[in-house]
Amino acid sequence: MSVIGYDLGNLSCYIAVARQGGIETIANEFSDRNTPCIVSLTSKERSIGSAAKTQIISNYKNTISNFKRLLGRPFDDPFVQNEMKDLPYKLSRTADGGVGVRVKYAGEDVEFSMAQVCGMLLTKLRSITEVNLKKPVQDCVLSVPSFFSEVQRRNLLAAARIANLNCLRLFNDTTAGKISTPCFPDPAYLLTFFQITKIFIIFFQITKLSIILPWLLKPKFKFHHMLSKNYVSNITYIMALAYGIYKQDLPAAEEKPRIIIFVDMGHSSLQVAAVAFNKGKLKVLATSFDPYLGGRDFDRLLFNHFADLFKDKYRIDVRTNKRAELRLLIECEKLKKQLSSNSGRMTLNIECLMDDKDVQGAMTSLNSCLCIYGWGLFNCYSFNHDYIIRTDFEALCAPLIQRVEKPLRTILQDAKLQSQDITSIEIVGGATRMPAVKSTIAEVFGMKVSTTLNADEAVARGCALQCA
Ligand code: ATP
Ligand code: MG
């Protein structure tokens, strides 16, 4: 039976299968390899993926998108509360305190847990795969962000079970696959963990400060990740695996390893890994991430810019009209992509955006101070022309671009690397297509970025490779 790799992104999913002669990515019923992470429910049916995308505006209350990050979180989690403000559909607290979604489905008010929604999406992915392979599919490898907690991972497994998928527990570094990996958890990490814990206990005993206790009891992100049982594959490891399999010219086992930095910036997060390669062997030296920085934050910045502009210029407040808000957000994403490939002048035009008004947006009349989305920083702009060019966009997004730097510098520190130790920087994820992101990565590491891996499909391919 074939084992399938599923890359479940916040925006889009990719499917890959290991077949004789290589890894193939599978297209959906619209001949598209990219299946949007969207579930739409109506009075008659549920549509998932590309079909659901067409309903994102017309049926916004019952169309669920951007849900991967809500999986396995408590409803009261500040992240959930913050996300809720921008979501067009209604979130609810499930009986066990988790996140649910309230929708109208088949004429009734229904609540689905996030695992159920994710299960629906995985069911669709399984059906796409089965149609393509013309046989039943069960075993799979799923991608998961490095920063997902144990509870989130378990919820993803529950979603896989709902979809009748058997998610293989393959990412166990103590056992070797085709490529051997360091034992997991790495003894060095364990040692550091125990040493640090010991220091904390001694410190606590000496100071008897009750304030330390809650802090100590709070799960520590990094250790939690490193020591957690890995049910599903770590995304950075998957990319490294995909790279290692294809590269034929790696140094022999006794030689100095080749060090590659992997950067994945998708819709909602940024993940970085430093990996040392020898023939038949890879070692993850360090990982770092910003779980709250992705392409969607750039869309939101543009959105805020134009929403404020249209308020002044056309006397319309798109924030008070969900349909107008969604349309503007979609146009902002399109504009962002155009600005990646085009350095010329552009404008944003939308017909009948709200109150029958056609709007045209540029970087104009915004000489006042703007609150920068997400950080609450203040910044002054003085764009004043009737078009948009890339440099305007980059100036607007400067605070986000600065945030890209931090996990990159952290990886150099944690892996104790200098730029001369690094052979290449491999970038994947849609948001790395932004020239400013690329140049920031190149600047931090002091070398050009490389795109050996397919930016969209690398993760799914790596998943399929795990069991090839
Ligand atoms: P995540 O990895 O965060 O869960 P994902 O895997 O679904 O999300 P990707 O498909 O890697 O995300 O990337 C999607 C993001 O990349 C979107 O924000 C999209 O707007 C952005 N993107 C895609 N192409 C371009 C482009 N040419 N220029 C700028 N941004 C782009
Ligand atoms: Mg991704």
Helix and strand arrangement:
Layout: E1 4-8, E2 12-19, E3 22-25, E4 35-36, E5 39-41, E6 46-48, H1 50-53, E7 63-64, H2 78-84, E8 90-93, E9 99-105, E10 108-113, H3 114-133, E11 139-144, H4 150-162, E12 166-167, H5 187-207, H6 212-217, H7 221-227, E13 233-234, H8 235-246, E14 258-265, E15 270-278, E16 281-290, H9 295-314, H10 322-341, E17 348-354, E18 357-361, E19 369-371, E20 378-380, H11 390-396, H12 398-414, E21 422-428, H13 435-445, E22 449-450, H14 458-465
Parallel strand pairs: 1-11, 11-12, 11-13, 14-21, 21-22
Antiparallel strand pairs: 1-2, 2-3, 2-4, 5-6, 5-7, 8-9, 9-10, 14-15, 15-16, 17-18, 19-20
Helix pairs in contact: 3-4, 8-14, 9-10, 12-13
Bound molecules: adenosine-5'-triphosphate (ATP) and magnesium ion.
Adenosine-5'-triphosphate binds next to helix 9 and helix 10.
Overview of the structural elements:
Among the domains are: 4-167, ATPase, nucleotide binding domain (Nucleotidyltransferase, domain 5, 2-Layer Sandwich), CATH 3.30.420; 295-400, Alpha-Beta Complex (Actin, Chain A, domain 4), CATH 3.90.640. It contains 14 helices and 22 strands. It has helices at 50-53, 78-84, 114-133, 150-162, 187-207, 212-217, 221-227, 235-246, 295-314, 322-341, 390-396, 398-414, 435-445, 458-465, and strands spanning 4-8, 12-19, 22-25, 35-36, 39-41, 46-48, 63-64, 90-93, 99-105, 108-113, 139-144, 166-167, 233-234, 258-265, 270-278, 281-290, 348-354, 357-361, 369-371, 378-380, 422-428, 449-450. Strands 1, 2, 3, 4, 11, 12 and 13 form a 7-stranded mixed sheet that branches. Strands 16-15-14-21-22 form a 5-stranded mixed sheet. The chain has a 3-stranded antiparallel sheet with strand order 6-5-7. Strand 19 and strand 20 form a beta hairpin. It is globular. The N and C termini lie close together (11 Å). The structure holds adenosine-5'-triphosphate and magnesium ion. Adenosine-5'-triphosphate (ATP) is lined by residues 9-12, 68, 266-269, 294-296, 333, 336-337, 340, 429-431, 433-434, 456. The site of adenosine-5'-triphosphate has 22 residues, from helix 9 and helix 10. One of its GO terms (cellular component) is cytosol. It comes from Ciona savignyi (Pacific transparent sea squirt).
